[in-house]
UniProtKB/TrEMBL annotation:
One Pfam family of this chain: ParB_N
Domain of life: Bacteria
Bias kind Basic and acidic residues: ranges: 25-34
Name used for this protein in its record: ParB N-terminal domain-containing protein
Species per Swiss-Prot/TrEMBL record: Paracoccus broussonetiae
Cross-referenced SUPFAM superfamilies: ParB/Sulfiredoxin
Chain positions covered by the region annotation Disordered: 19-48
Gene3D superfamilies linked: 3.90.1530.30
Length: 366
């Protein structure tokens, strides 16, 4: 018995026909329908490429920032607050004369009222410390304010430009000199004293103060350098006995230097008159110097009568160097003074040992 087929008419919507195409699936549909493992691998690769690109950009930016930091540091434009106790002022011999500094008082008052407008300049040293390059008076003002107020939060740290190491000592001296040359109050005596100390510094190559003038005061004119050299002779002969050397006028200093060259006995006579007279003022000291320079009561060309017997005429100064394991020791011998400069901290030597060594040396010279 045969079975009859039944036919049914089914109406299919057009959307369904388009949604289920017959034949091969297009490539883009394959991508959409790929498995979860393939999708994860693709996403990981893309993420890795993006991370590498970002890291390369960060490295390039860091390199640029590092180069800029080095440039700014070399120029002393990197500024930070530095503890006063971490700053040493030993590398350069300052050109400020000892004694009361009226301008320092004005600077202290200005900093107290409006703050510090110009940071000091330092360079990194060993052990986390810093060496002062510029700004001795500003540093002194901060230290004075700290002692006066005891306010560590306000005055215990000072703004400082941190320079990179590497500048030669001669260049550091030149910067200090040029900075102070623009100040109207720096005297010929102070400039001469700086040249003397520069020559005595064991770390400098030049041991003759008069030759050091050409190094330190290269920016000054020939005539000014000549005046400084005259004051060098004056300071070498009388420096330790003068309380107000910075107040000596140029004309008086030049006349007195010439007089000391002409009359060797004048120097010990001036020292004898000034030594022990600690209460003298500026005018008192200048009056004495004017007399010996022939600008006062004494007749020009007549050697003054000293209060005590003058020392035998000798060379104004003798200098020599001795090579030691610590470096070159610069020795300066003058009338009433024997100085040894060596890159070593003698304060760290036991006092009894140091005293015995000096006593032995002095006894060997008798």
């Amino acid at each position: 018995m045969s079975r009859k087929r039944r036919m049914f008419d089914i109406d299919m919507p057009d959307e369904a026909v388009e949604s289920f195409p017959a034949g091969k699936v297009e490539a883009e549909e394959k991508d959409v329908r790929r498995g979860p493992m393939a999708t994860a691998i693709a996403e990981t690769a893309e993420s890795s490429r993006e991370r590498s690109r970002v890291e390369a950009e960060i490295r390039a930016e860091n390199d640029a920032l590092a180069q800029e930091h080095v440039r700014l540091k070399r120029a002393g434009l990197i500024t930070d607050l530095i503890d006063l106790d971490a700053i040493d002022a030993l590398k350069l011999t300052r050109d400020r004369a000892p004694g009361e500094d009226e301008e320092l008082k004005e600077l202290i008052q200005s900093i107290r009222e409006i703050g510090l407008s110009n940071p000091i300049r330092v360079e990194p040293a060993a052990g986390g410390r810093y060496e002062l390059i510029q700004g001795w008076r500003r540093l002194s003002a901060y230290r004075a304010l700290l002692v006066e107020t005891g306010d560590v939060a306000a005055w215990g740290r000072i703004p400082a430009g941190i320079a990179a190491r590497g500048d030669e000592l001669e260049q550091l001296y030149r910067r200090m000199v040029d900075e102070n040359m623009v100040r109207k109050d720096i005297s010929f005596a102070e400039m001469a004293q700086l040249a003397i100390r520069y020559a005595a510094d064991p770390q400098t190559a030049e041991g003759d103060p008069e030759k050091a003038v050409a190094i330190l005061f290269r920016s000054a004119g020939y005539q000014k350098r000549s005046y400084i050299r005259n004051f060098i002779r004056l300071m070498e002969a009388l420096g330790d006995s003068l309380l107000h050397a910075s107040q000596i006028p140029r004309a008086l200093g030049l006349a007195l230097a010439q007089k000391l060259d002409e009359i060797p006995a004048a120097a010990p006579a001036i020292r004898a008159e000034l030594d022990g007279w600690d209460a003298r003022g500026v005018s008192d000291e200048l009056d004495v110097l004017r007399r010996y320079a022939g600008q006062g009561a004494l007749a020009e060309g007549t050697p003054p009568e000293p209060k005590s017997a003058p020392a035998p005429a000798a060379k104004a100064r003798t200098t020599f160097q001795i090579q030691r394991p610590q470096g070159s020791a610069k020795c300066t011998a003058a009338n009433g003074r024997l100085e040894v400069r060596l890159p070593r901290d003698f304060s760290a030597v036991d006092r009894r040992k140091l005293e015995a060594a000096v006593r032995t040396m002095l006894e060997s010279l008798e």
